[in-house]
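I have been asked to look over a protein record a colleague put together. This is what I was given:
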Amino acid sequence: MMLMWLRWLSLFLLSMIGSFDAASAESGRRLALVIGNSIYETAGTLPNAARDARAFGAFLSNQGFDVDIVVDADRSRLAEAVTRFSRKITADDVALFYYAGHGMQLRGENYLVATNARLANEFDVAAEALALDDVVRAIETKAKITLIFLDACRNNPLANRLNEEIEGAARSLATRGLAPIETESAGTMVAFAAAPGQVAADGRGENSPFTAALVNHLASPGIEIGTAFKRVIRDVRTATEGKQSPQILSSLSLEFYFARALQQPEQAPVAAPAIDLQAIEMEADFQKALRINTPRIWTFFLAKHRSGEKADVARQMLSVMQPNSVASLLFPTPEQRETELTLDKTKRSEIQLALAARGFGTGNADGVFGAQTRKAITDYQKSAGIADTGYFNEPTAKALGVNVFRAADGLYSSPLARQYQPKDFIGLETDPRVLKVIECDSWQEKVYGSFQGHMYAVIRAQSTAWKSANATARHCGGHLATITSKEENDFIISLFSKDERFFDSEYEASSNGTYKFGPWIGLIQNENAREPREGWRWVTGEGMTFAKWLQGMPNEHKQGDDFGMYYANALGKRDPKELRVDSWDDMGPSNSSHSFVIEFE
C-alpha cells in the first residue's frame, strides 16, 4: 500500500513540475529543419514528399518557427543541412526536425535515404543514407525541447530489395517501416507516420494522410501536443482504413503548444484528473515491447493487455512478424505451420536439395519456395502418405530427415544480435531463464533461444579467447555449450548463422585458403592426450557422445590446440558469406573468435 501511495505522489509531483515548467518552456527560439525528398535517382518518385515538406514548413512559419526547407537532397546536402541546423540550436530553444521521403531500417537501425542512394549492398547504407540516431542525438543534446516528425515509411523498393536479400523474404516483411528508437533527453518527442512494420501512404491528394493530419490538428487552440497527436492518429487511421497507425515515443517533461497565444488559457481551477494506473502500466509495457520488438514479447504483451489501441498495434506487429498468429493459434493453417518453423534461406535450400535427392525436382536450390518447390513438396507429401498441403511442416521434415524447430522451442530473440536492457523485460517476460540470459554481459549484443528445456545465448564479443569466453559463461551462471546430438548442434547453428557479425574470417595467400571462425563452444582436450582425437570432453565433465568435426579435424596444428570452435574453410579466395559454418575445429589459447555460445540449464 505504501508503495502505491509513493507512486501516486511521484506522479502528482511530476505533473506539478510539468505545469510550472510549461510557462518557461519556450524562453528561447522556435527552430525547424524541414526536408522533403521526392525525386530519387533509382527509387522512383514520391510526388507528395516535397509538397508535404513545403506545406508543413508553411504551417510552422505561421506558428512562429524559423524554418529551413530542404527539398530533394542527396547524401551530402542531408548531412550539411543537419549540421547547419544543429549549430544554430541553443539550450533554451525548441528544435523541430521533419522528414518526408524514403526511410528504411537495417538490423534495427533507422536511415533517411538520400536522393542519390543506390543501396547496391548493405555496406552502402551508411554512405548513401543518414542515420536517424545521429540526427536525433545532434539535436536533442542541444535543445530544450526536441520534436521529430518522420513521414518516412513510404514503400521503398531499394530498402525492400536490400532487406529481402539480407533477411529473406519472410523476415523482410518485419523490417518494413522504421524501428523504434530510444531518446536520451527528457525533452524529446518522436512521431512516426506509421507503426513499426507498416508502410506509410504517400497520399492520393496534395499531401500524405500523416502530414495533412499534422497541419489540421497540431495548432488546435489550447491543445497540448500529446493530445493533438491523438487526433492525428484518429484521422490517419480513418483516411487509410486502418492500414496506417501513427506512433509517438515521448519523454517530454514539459508541455508544448503550437498555438502560442493559448498556452495557458485562463480558467477556474479544476480538480486534478484521476490517475489511471492501468493505462500508465500499459503505456510503459508498450514502450518496453517496442524496444524489444520480438514475437515472443508482443505475445506476452497481448496476454497482459487484451484491449485498447496499444493491443491493436501489438496484434498488428504480430501479424507482420508471424502472419495470422493471433487469429489462429488454435487452428493454424498449413501456411502458418510452415511460418512457425525457423526456415532461413539456408534451411530452405537444404529442403530443396533433400527433395531433389528423392526425385522431386525443385529447380535451383536457391532457398526460395516458388511454384516448382511447392509442387515438389506436394508430390513428396503424397508419396509419403502425408496430407498434401504444399507447405512444409514437421511430418514432412521428419520423413525427409531434415531437422526443423518450432518457434515455441527455438529463437526467442531477434534473429540478428542486439543489445537488450534487462529493465525492459520486467513485467512482460515470464521465463526467469531469459532474464538470466539478458543480464549476462548485458552490454554485449546477443541472440538467444530455447531447445529441449535448455536456454542458449550466442554472445557477440570481438576478439575473445576461449579462456575469457569460458570465464564469462561461468560468471553468468551457465557454461560454454555442450553438444550431445545432431539436433542440438543444428539448433545452435540456427541461432548464429543469420548474423555474419558472429564470425571472423581471413584469406591466407601462402595456403591459398579462406578461413571462417565461428563461436567458441565448451569442448576441451586433456593436456596429456597423445593424439589429436583423444581426450576430448565437455567443460561439464561429460564425455563426447556426438561429434561434428570438420573433415580432417582435430589435427593439433599447433601444440596446445585444446579448445573447440565452430569453423569452416575453403580452397581459394572466397566470399566468407558463402562458407556455411556447421562443424568444429581445435584451436589454441592464442586464437580468438567474435562470439561464443553459453548454455543455461
Observations:
- The chain is about 35% helix and 20% strand.
- The radius of gyration is 27 Å.
